[in-house]
Amino acid sequence: MNTERDYSRLLTQTFDTPMPYEWSVGVHGSRFFREIKTHQRFIGIRCPECGKVYVPPRRVCGPCFREMRELVVLPNQGTIRAYSIVNYPFIDPDTGQQRPIPYTYGYIQIEGADNIFSHIIDETDVANIEVGMKVRAVFKAAADMRGHMSDIVHFEILENAS
Amino acid sequence: MAQRVAIVGTGQTDHRSHRPDVSQREMIHEAVLRALADCRLSIGEIDAIVIGNMDHFESINYVDTWSVEGSGGVMKPIMKVTTGGTTGTSVAVAAYYHVASGLFDKVLAIGWEKNSESDTTAAIITCSDPIWDRFSYSGAIPSLATEASAYMKQYGATQEDAARVAVRDRNNALNNPHAHLRRPITVADVMSSPMLAYPIKLLDVCPRTDGACAVVFAAANIARKMCPRPAWIKACSVRHTYTWFGDSTDYTSGLVSLKRAAQEAFQTAGIRNPAEELDVAELYLPYTYAGLKWIEDLGFCGPGEGARFVADGHTDMNGKIPVNPSGGVISTNCIGATALLRVAEAAIQIMGKGGKRQVPDVRQALATGFGGCFWSDVMILSAHRP
């Protein structure tokens, strides 16, 4: 049996080499980022069967298993459905570096959408944030956009819920 | 169904935060030897193996191939099944399917993890969509925290209500010689532990553990030869929701995957009032708020009643439905093994082999798995052959 006392005797080996990947964003996803860049607006997509609107747009409605084609323009604002203020250190696999903390992870229901959009909310004081608050997207300057979720800098709180 | 199935043996390592004394396959081997000894089988008598762990955690894929000297899979039918946090219940369900099909009579299910070998949060983030979810996602804790914040808002539950779940599980772990964290804690300890992601504090959430678990599933006609009181599979159900994080939980109607899986399993097992008819539950509760909310989704109590149900002692060792006599996930979390440990511990309770953590006279036990994007597996075990 081991004990933690044995560390000096027992070796471990470290692997820290980057391994690059290249992921396809798809037709609707690419359009989503283009719309943000050229019009600073969100688009979603509607299921022909259940009528649900999804943002970001994707080809298939999971529950209906139906292809979606009808794109819809959505406002750049919504409601906080849930959130969490992240306050512990971890490695971001996107960068290989520690992600800056604290930051607030938010589940936002965009107006006119039926699903929930995950992004960052620019409020890290738990006293100032609540489920139900309205938020609005803040975009990067169009010239700095690169077809990435970080083209949306964060969501800012517009007003108190109650 | 071709044939009925029972669990006849279980084995697990003595779980620790770091096991630098064993390689991955050596750690797997420890659990397999204990499971075989428990039902007095040799590895030669095992017909097939299902093994699983978390992809990316140790940066080695094809565990089914490279671990054969540990699993005993040399020249046997062996396959890997991995579904995130539910991996442990998925290998159990797959082993059950193997035997139920009638094609195999004795099948070994193995789950394992060496959490110490990577940054667990970074590894978990790689399970999320790289284009849409990875940017803001920060591993298991904040997605659970979003659920907790929505639940608190809906029902007025408090951080102290949740802390009682950790106190229950961590104190139960004192009775389990295999558990990782074996120091008693109080509500005050939980409340004063560092805030990781509001409202989740350090002692609200599961640890990172090195460990393995193995469970032997056998056909009805031979089960009693290996085990005097086998744990019969009465029902099992699997429900997976979305892979989009924001879409995976309906915050107004609870953990839908667990609700649906439980409804189906309870119906198969003929259970109408789970809190009355089940004798014990080993639930995959990775954080304290799940111990309030998910017992509502399981129907142990009504919506919004979880905090009261726990505070009144109904889930304590001498309560109406004891939850997690083993200490649960909050005390031990070797992730690929975690859900299989729930199945193993539920089987141990049926077999009457629980020692100090045994609940008296268990006839019907519930095990659950949780993972992925709020995915759920449910298994109901019985002392009586269905």
How would you summarize this macromolecular structure in one to three sentences?
Chain A is mostly beta strands and 162 residues long. Chain A is built from 1 helix and 10 strands.
Characterization of this structure:
The complex is a heterodimer of chains A (162) and B (386). The termini of chain A are far apart. Chain A has one helix at 27-39; strands at residues 42-46, 53-54, 60-61, 66-67, 70-74, 77-86, 103-110, 117-121, 134-139, 152-159. Chain A is mainly beta. In chain A, a hairpin with a 6-residue loop joins strand 7 (103-110) and strand 8. Chain A has one domain. The model of chain A has no long low-confidence stretch (mean pLDDT 91). Chain A is built from one helix and ten strands; from the N terminus they run αββββββββββ. Helix content of chain A is 8%, strand content 33%. A five-stranded antiparallel beta sheet of chain A has the order 8-7-6-9-10, with no helix packed on it. A three-stranded antiparallel beta sheet of chain A has the order 2-1-5, covered by helices on one side. A two-stranded antiparallel ribbon of chain A has the order 3-4. Chain B has 386 residues and is of the alpha/beta class. Chain B has a nine-stranded mixed beta sheet. The mean pLDDT of chain B is 95. Chain B has two domains: 5-120 and 209-226, Peroxisomal Thiolase, Chain A, domain 1 (3-Layer(aba) Sandwich); 129-207 and 234-382, Thiolase/Chalcone synthase (Peroxisomal Thiolase, Chain A, domain 1), CATH 3.40.47. In chain B, 36% of the residues lie in helices and 18% in strands. The chains are: A mainly beta (162), B alpha/beta (386). At the A-B interface, strand 6, strand 7 and strand 8 of A face helix 5, helix 6 and strand 5 of B.
Keywords:
heterodimer, A: 162 residues, mainly beta, 1 helix, B: 386 residues, alpha/beta, Peroxisomal Thiolase, Chain A, domain 1, 2 domains, two-stranded antiparallel ribbon, 15 helices
SSE topology:
The complex is a heterodimer of chains A (162) and B (386).
Chain A: H1 27-39, E1 42-46, E2 53-54, E3 60-61, E4 66-67, E5 70-74, E6 77-86, E7 103-110, E8 117-121, E9 134-139, E10 152-159
Antiparallel strand pairs in A: 1-2, 1-5, 3-4, 6-7, 6-9, 7-8, 9-10
Chain B: E1 5-12, H1 24-38, E2 48-52, H2 63-66, H3 68-71, E3 78-80, H4 87-100, E4 106-114, H5 120-125, H6 140-155, H7 159-172, H8 187-192, E5 195-197, E6 200-201, E7 210-219, H9 220-226, E8 231-239, H10 256-269, H11 274-277, E9 280-282, H12 290-297, H13 306-311, H14 328-331, H15 335-351, E10 364-371, E11 375-382
Helix pairs in contact in B: 4-15
